[in-house]
Amino acid sequence: MKYYIGIDIGGTNIKTGVVDEDGKIISEHSIPTRAERPQEEVLKDIIKSVRASVSGVDIDYSDVVSAGIGTPGFIDVKNGVVIYNNNLGWRNFGVSGELSRELGIPVTLENDADAAALGEVIAGSAKGAKSAMIITLGTGVGTGYVVDGKIVRGCEFGHMVIEFGGRQCTCGRKGCFESYCSATGLINMTKELISDNPDGLTARIAAKEGSVGGRTVFDASQKGDKEADELIDKYISYLACGLVNLINGLQPEIISLGGGIAKQGTRLIDPLKEKVYTEIYEGIKFPKIVTCTLGYKAGLIGAALAAR
Question: Does the N terminus or the C terminus of the chain have fewer Cβ atoms within 10 A?
Fold first, then answer.
């Protein structure tokens, strides 16, 4: 049996693990990122965490073939360099080379969304699919596209425009998919609903919780708030618009949705399928639309096996 090391770098925590050739995590370890430190100090902790992961399982280190890193930010995959990562403060950091020298094995670097997409194809919701689009509805909209088990890099579909001249996006454009369909986008629309109706049920739920979250409007809808129903329908319509653009252009076999909003399950997926079905280009095969199943483990598995 061959083994691979996965490293998933987040702004809060860094997870490392040993993954077998079937995509099963057999050992894992987590450390706080403490991103305010110099990048070299963070790397030292990553090395310690990798070694802790390997020591936590009874395998021969000679059976560890390679390691892979999944990280957010702008990266140079070919040379293993993090060119810029705003959340971590990393700039022009040749992390793959540094780690390879310390561990004595090849180390590859991938975008974290791409790694998570590959993980879902290898061992999760899109297992066995020939082409899969993984979309994460979180702080932003992360997209990863995998064809024949290989990552198609550069798929920043979160910044395609679905509403010309629409909401301002952090990327500088207006009307991006991310501006409407991320959890942040839904929260912003929910806050507007509350502002327009400060005595409504959605407002009361938010006040009781002490904040507005991605599930606030869904909770209000479940308790009978008709305005919440309308907002959810609007949100799902935007999401369907983005998905139809991707389906018409790329024709993936499956689309898997992850992130906090996707935890609504059938309350999101069923009406989404209906809207997509009515808009999809005639003759294109309707893809499966499901929710991701691996959570954070997807990034760990995908990073580990990206260079397999």
Answer: N
- Give the pLDDT of residue 308: 82
Mean pLDDT for each consecutive 10-residue tract of the chain (308 residues)? 93 92 94 90 94 90 93 90 84 94 95 92 95 92 93 89 94 94 96 96 96 96 96 98 97 95 95 96 95 94 91
Closest alpha carbon to 28 in 16, 20, 10, 19: 16
Token pair listed for 305: 């096996």
pLDDT score of 294: 95
Which amino acid, one-letter code, is at 180?
A: Y
Output DSSP code: residue 285. Answer: P
Encoded tokens for 152: 């198609």
Partnered with residue 9 across adjacent β-strands are 14
Contacts of 300 (CB under 8 A, 6+ apart): 6, 7, 8, 15, 16, 17, 19, 25, 28, 70, 119
Report pLDDT for 247: 97
Q: Based on the number of CB atoms within 10 Å of its own CB, is 270 exposed (0-12), middle (13-18) or buried (19 or more)?
A: exposed
Q: What is the pLDDT of residue 102?
A: 93
| DSSP three-state, residue 230 | helix
pLDDT of residue 229: 97
Q: Contact, 61 vs 76, CB < 8 A?
A: no
- Contact at 8 Å (CB) between 238 and 162? yes
Domains in the chain, start-ordered, CATH in brackets? 3-120+297-305 (3.30.420.40), 128-291 (3.30.420.40)
213-220: long-range pairs with CB below 8 Å, 24+: 213/183, 213/187, 213/260, 214/183, 214/186, 214/187, 214/260, 214/261, 215/260, 215/263, 215/264, 216/187, 216/190, 217/186, 217/189, 217/190, 217/193, 218/264, 218/267
Residues in the chain: 308
Q: Are 183 and 261 in contact (CB under 8 A)?
A: yes
- The answer for 91, left when phi > 0, alpha when psi is -120 to 50, beta otherwise, is beta
